[in-house]
Amino acid sequence: ILESPRDDNEPKLMQGALCTECGNHTVIRKDGCDFCTACGAVGTCG
What we know:
Layout: E1 27-30, E2 33-36, E3 42-45
Antiparallel strand pairs: 1-2, 2-3
């Protein structure tokens, strides 16, 4: 066996955009603004 079977019940993780502050891919849209869920940085709004 080259790789273990995947568990289909496991939720899929969605990767966000790259944060310029902390470098994580955790930027989402929140209340109309870009928001990093890792460090709390707020980006462009609108």
